[in-house]
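Hi V.,

You were right to ask for the full record rather than a summary. Here it is.
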Amino acid sequence: MVGRAMWRAGLLALALVGTAPAEAAPAPELDRAIDPCTDFYQFACNKWIAANPIPADRSRWTRFDALAQETQESLHKLLDEAVAHPTDESRKIATYYGACMDRSAIEQAGLRPLQAELDRIDALDGKAGLPLLLAHLHAIGVNAFFDFESGPDDEDSEREIAQLVQGGLGLPDRDYYFRADADSVALREAYRAHVAAMLSLSGMAKRASDQAAAAILSLETALAKASLTRVERRDPHAVYHLQTLAALSHLAPGFDWAGYFKASGAPGFDRLNVAEPGFVSGFDAVLTEIPLDSIKLYLRWQLLDRFAGTLPAAFVTENFEFSGKRLQGQAEIAPQWRRCVASTDKALGEALGKLYVAHYVVPGTKDRIEQLIADLRTAFAQDIATLPWMGDETRRRAYAKLDAMAEKIAFPAHWRDYTGLEVKPGDALGNVTRAAAFETRRELGKIGGLVDHGEWHMTPPTINAYYSREENSINFPAGILQLPFFGADRDDVANYGAIGGVIGHEMTHGFDDAGRHFGPHGVLTEWWTHDDEAGFLERSQCFVDQYSKYKVNGDAAVNGRLTLGENTADNGGLRVALKALAVHLGGKKSADIDGMSTQQRFFVSFAQLWCGDIRPQAAVKQVLTDPHSPAPVRVNATLSNMPEFAAAFHCTAGAPMVPKQACRVW
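Predicted structure:
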């Protein structure tokens, strides 16, 4: 489950490692056999999709993924060079990467690197010892039962507090445990068989592993039943409950919370956010009702699942068969070097990012993006000024939030210090556990302190962007500040349609169904008048109804409520980006290029960001778990809500891209 300590709304569900600036491929050719007023996504993307089939080791293939692969290849070269010629600055990432790539050492070691952890679980002789064991497992990154973390206090956004968040599930989402259709039932059986296979690989007899897997699935189902849905968790009020330790102990009296917090190494505190109190009560019921032996089996499974990628090949293969092939439709596993680049980025992201920035970030990029953001700010203010449903009092407060919105571009002003992280040659699994423990100590060490507004929550090579509602900030890593999003020498119109739309998207998150609950300084506060809130909710419902009509893979419906925030950001962000283009042009006309007008090029550049294809299994998973709508929906639904689009492509009333009722909030 995703934690809530620092709430971030991003452009994508997954952060993708970015690429080095390179000679960019030309923009995809348009499919002029398709009427743009019928299906603009196909018009913009058909030819790119036909020329770029999904690779065997991928569950999807988009322009984002193509860019990410180029980056991984660039980072691969940097890491290979660091391994061959380590410097004081690169030695730690070289050692980590080198150990990850040493499959021979991993095979020879077998389960020995994990044996101490397995023995620790086996030695648990009573439920009273669980708090200390869980504190240790959480420290090394094992997501058992719940998450304990730090994050800004929603009522005092300058202060970091302790946060307790639901977790502990092995399937992608709590709803996977309850869906009754035939495919979902079959998937749960495949999951049970996968858990049994992993336990067998760890030395358990087959009959015992089958029984254990059934017990584990039962335990996880009980946790899932107590968990909030993803839609429920979108409401910030639903996941903010500041409580005393005494109140927490009342919710779950069967667990020694004081002992757990002390063993975690967190600084002392007397209050914390219990994000989902009902889940904590459900966790207590699990502890009471589930036998100790089943709890130990569950912990063993959680441990194996967490470190499967760093264990011998039999574990890697079994993990891929379920998580890659069954869940997402991949035909082949990604090569070892790609998995090790990703692992290095996760463990030592700013050390690797610093190397990336030194080699690949183009001078002057930050200045250009700052100007784009300035134009978007002006355009957003113009948008607020003209909203017919917003009254003057709320409008003044909206201006205040926009004015206070901070921005971070490309890379941190101060790099993270990894001096305290020990990395050893030939010890891949040990490096992973020590890196996780290092990060846990860093995160928990924030509790009681002030929020560091200079901290980033994505690494510099990442192709993504995010909005932080607690910081009221928009953030754009270096990876996304290149083609096809931004090009220093590209037509400005295309830049405003692409990276301009991204900037507008993140800005609009500050005013979506979740972000709107926070004031200019990230404090949870209701700054809307009653009438304006009612107007907002009425217009938001239009998006919910519109997007819920779309389906993927035949019958998997988009969840208009789950995707509301991202849909609001797509629609508002692109509208603001178009206004920003007008600000930039200052009344001057932009010449037609390749027979396309200014607005036509703007809309094409936006749409072609999302060109791509996805496997059926991954498409189903997306609509169940992802707050972002599928790519064709993001393009067609957004553009169909813009009269400027219909005018640009001369679409007439009644065309599929011109609905009878267009939706608009911002």
